[in-house]
Amino acid sequence: MIFNTALYAALAIFSIGLIFKVFTWFRYSLGVDGKDIPFSGRVAAAIRGVFSTLFSSKILILIRVFIFEVLLQSRTFKQSVPRWVMHMLIFGGFMLLLVLHALEIPVTSRLFPDYASTLNPFLLIRNLSLAMVLTGLGIAFYRRHRSKTGRLFSHAMDHYLLILLAVIMISGLLLEGSKIVSYKRYQNMMEDYGDVEGGAEAKALESFWVAKFGVASPNVKGPFDEATLSQGKQLHETNCAACHSRPQWAFLSYGVSRGIKPLATVLDRLNIPLVLWYIHFLTCFIGLAYLPFSKMFHIVTSPLSLLVNAVMDNERSDPANIATRQIMELDACTHCGTCNERCSVAVAFEEIPNSNILPSEKMAAVKALASGKKLDENDLKRLQEGIYLCTNCYRCTEVCPVGINLQELWFNVREKLIQEGYPELLTLSPLSFYRGLRRDRIPKAQFRESASQIEKAIANECPSIDTNDRIDKNDMDKAFKEKLAKSSEGGSFVYCFTCMTCTSACPVCRNYENPPEALGLVPHQIIRAAALGLPDMVYRSNMLWRCLGCYQCQDSCPQGVRLTDIFYELKNLATERLRDKLSKP
Ligand code: HEC
Ligand code: SF4
Ligand code: SF4
Ligand code: SF4
Ligand code: SF4
For the chain, which domains are there? Predict the structure, then answer.
């Protein structure tokens, strides 16, 4: 009764969770794709996409990906063999336990008509699967705590999940162990199957079970003589052997049963096997209900992500499906940290204590952002910083074992932040290279909007100086000069003698009929303005932000002024000064 109610409740929560998750995949979007496509359009596009893929040659790709990437986890294997071993142990063991144990009634007993959980090979395989999972988890635990790979943080949720799994497995193991020694169980079985005549036969069978099957009997004690045992063996073969292999095959449960044998009578009296049975099943049901909300949901989403990414491409796929895939992928992340190991900007995390610099750690905030949750000021700033530092280098996407297209994700998160009115200084500069490369994917107004927001912010922050007047001494900023001169590169501005070679060499200047009109200050003027200590003038100049970083000016300067390096320093100083002003007005 309780069992069934709990099972149905768990199944109901599981289904509601699953439906809710799938609903969000079609409901939410990030960035430029599918922003204005309604829910029904997204669902229809997905159905069309699935059918056109299944009835095309792409089905072969799906089969290949399913075998190699999903079942054999070739991506993880390429990254790290120990991690692959660990994951295969957990994955393989878990699947075996699921099919042979949790689904024994609907699956195993149909496939194998002679199935009995107490009979080999099932008895052995069940323990073997458990041993696989435990070994895998042991390696995972060791790797996480000993070799701090991937600068990974553990979330509280990860811990709850581990605790739940541990309770399920330990209670299961104790349950099996306590059943092996249980005399009550033995008596029940005897009532059902024990066709024996008289006390002597019953005693012989019982002796045999005590000696060979580890039952803790209060009545008979070893050592037993050969005659009793062989009589017991015969009775066993006619009555019990059809369903029972020796429990020693279940090496883990049997080991546990030896450990608890001295307590067997007490355990039996307190009905502990039943208690353990309840604990085991209830925690399994809790796990089932919790599955769609936990990281374990990746057993559904990771294969989906791998398959979908193998057959979709950004140029030809329906934007509605790109949006849907992107949200689904957020659920596929296993928080494994492989991306962090390869991330080009992860080193910055050593200097800037913002975990959102690491790709795996951005995920939580990105999920919240996608769901339309309001991030608080601080979380948003941290995400913004993480996203803006990302160079879109593709390295994380290449290694993600579940095939998430991270590069696409970061691009869209950045656009989403810009849409919501969080301007980005870098949009002024070719440093936002990747955004420029993909400008045809961004609505025109949105592409420009961010830049004009920034221009406004700079104009507000840095008052213009009328260069026709003499420059007032009060405008000169000594602190700024000192900051710039901190490094030997930055300090080289002092050697400039205004020969203008740099400006003549600059390809950006050459691009304009009247460079000062388009660019404000040209390269040599920026150096002079810096030397005079006029930061506002420098920051307002378009030249600083249009500089390509080509180093031609620096290469041609006869005085060894490191112009390009100075321009980087100046951009950094501008960013530092404007950072707080750039949050949403
Ligand atoms: C029709 C198959 C069948 C027969 C015959 C059978 N058993 Fe069992 N027995 C089982 C199953 C299945 C379990 C496990 C039940 C469970 O999971 O609670 C079990 C469990 C037990 C247990 C508890 C230990 C354990 O591993 O779970 C004992 C002890 C036991 N049987 C003794 C006997 C004895 C003694 C006989 C012969 C008189 C016998 N059984 C005959 C199917 C059978
Ligand atoms: S994004 Fe991919 S590589 Fe990074 S933590 Fe998630 S699953 Fe692992
Ligand atoms: S694309 Fe961004 S997050 Fe990914 S590895 Fe490169 S810098 Fe890191
Ligand atoms: S080339 Fe060198 S010395 Fe000449 S103006 Fe430019 S920075 Fe100054
Ligand atoms: S580094 Fe910038 S300023 Fe120098 S030449 Fe190249 S584009 Fe011009």
Answer: 180-276 (no CATH), 336-458 (no CATH), 461-582 (1.10.1060)
